[in-house]
Amino acid sequence: MVRGLGYRCVKTSFVVPDDLDPLQRHPKAAGPGQPIRMHSPACLGCGEAAPRGLHLVVRAATDDEFAVETVMPVEQWMEGGPGVIHGGVLSTAFDEVMSVAPLLVGPSAVTVHLETDFIAPITVGTTLHLRARLLGRQRRKLYVEASAHLGDPDALVAVGHSIFVTVDAKAHFADHVENSAIGDEHKARLSRP
Description:
It is built from 3 helices and 6 strands; from the N terminus they run ββαββββαα. By secondary structure, it is α+β, with helices and mostly antiparallel strands. It holds the Pfam family 4HBT.
């Protein structure tokens, strides 16, 4: 069983420790229904300046203080097999929505583990509803699960799990800013106190 979702998956190696630290919502976290800031304007998942991006707008859930959600139209360019979404596009969408959830409890975190279980085909031309929920934390590690459906939350088409590790964003990205499409903008952001 997928923890918290009550849905059987094909397989999962994701194990949530029993001794998780309690979660505490960050005082500056987005309120229920509010959008959560994008990672970077050039981000493939949420960036408005990413020419081939998903352009997801992730919002804090209205029914759970540790969950986020978004919708994504499944467009023709996302096709993998005939008429269905490419698995890598779905995994990217899951990575995006799950990476936003840690912002509800603190600063930047990066993906260290991501897995996706594909349950049913996701047809081009549909709208995918994605939701991620923080399960807990253990020191710097944050455990997150996600689900996707096509309008009926009881009929999941995919689930995902991830582990994120909190980082000092300035130090973590400092050596890579030069490679960004918007490197100068990132340098300015990282130089602020």
